[in-house]
Amino acid sequence: MKYEESFKIKDLEIKNRFAVPPMVCFHWSDDNGYVTEKNLEHYEALSKGGFGLVIVEATAITKRSRLADTELGIWEDAQTEGLGKIAYKIHEGGAKAFIQLLCAGGNGIDPNAEAPSTMDYRGGRIHAKEMTKERIKETVDDFAKAAVRAKKAGFDGVELHGCHGYLISCFFNSRTNIRTDEYGENKSLFAIEVLKAVKEACGEDFIVGIRLGVFEPHLEEGLEHAKAIAPYTDFLDVSYGGPSEGYAPEGFPCSEAVYGASVIKKELPDMPVFAVHNINSREDVINALDTGIDMVDIGKAALVDPSFAGHILRGEPYGQCLHCKNFCRWNPNEMADKDLKCPGFIKFSRMHG
Ligand SMILES: Cc1cc2nc3c(=O)[nH]c(=O)nc-3n(C[C@H](O)[C@H](O)[C@H](O)COP(=O)(O)O)c2cc1C
Fold it and tell me: For the domain that residue 89 is a member of, what is the CATH number?
């Protein structure tokens, strides 16, 4: 089966095709963004779960870049100690470790947020101002500094958060980037500048990639962005964009986002491409990999069953997300704190007696 085959991004060998995508553990960190014991236990469990790659959750490059007030941060050197423990745990379990770097832009908690263009976000609660060129340069630099900390902490690579409507995503998307300068004319320019700065700061052998929205706002533009940034990125982790319309042909066996990833892979055959969304069973994994993409991201199913990959690889029963109401979507860990368990987790636990 292709899912058990190893895979290389540059010289970095990943033992199989299963990745854990970044998923923020809300309420486990504090206002200072430091790693806690709960974060460590969480990543330890995932690292032992058979995955070839674990991408640590969106981690804020500056304090004002956060999307929540309790998420991990990488804006000061002292934070690397805890993050280094996460990288160590992931490696100890046999997986490779990347970390996602985030600047939330208008879709965060900063009341004085900045975005590509002056615009309201979060249902009008955040009035973001257009970034000056000076602030763009500072933000590029903040990404580079954060990546250097990630490298020092022992990660094998970084992934820029370039989708889901956060800052980089908003530069890509013509609905949120209505600038008339070079960043508006070339909507990939900001991402290219960040990718180049990170490479320059961390060296060629450090893996630098991006999570890209393939519908930004449509597949055509997503594909153009992928081609424009291809010379500067070591991989593309493909997800949904910001305000956008998704699409997949009738009968396509996986989600629209997987379809988008497969289109990018066909156009850029030498680029390592990861796909995500609703890959929730052995059959889904096979169907997604059969489209030609290289890695499958297992999100909520990995929260239900941190050994989802190992169980499939060994032909054992595995847990699945049951797509219940979205209440667990943004808060699975808080549920665990309250001893509430998601239905998928309960079903999986019963299977194991
Ligand atoms: C609790 C939770 C936190 C998430 N945090 C992030 C994140 O930090 N960065 C990111 O790019 N996507 C994040 N996502 C999206 C997931 O990485 C993934 O793309 C999404 O859950 C769809 O995959 P799935 O159907 O396998 O769950 C999060 C999803 C969940 C459920």
Answer: 3.20.20.70
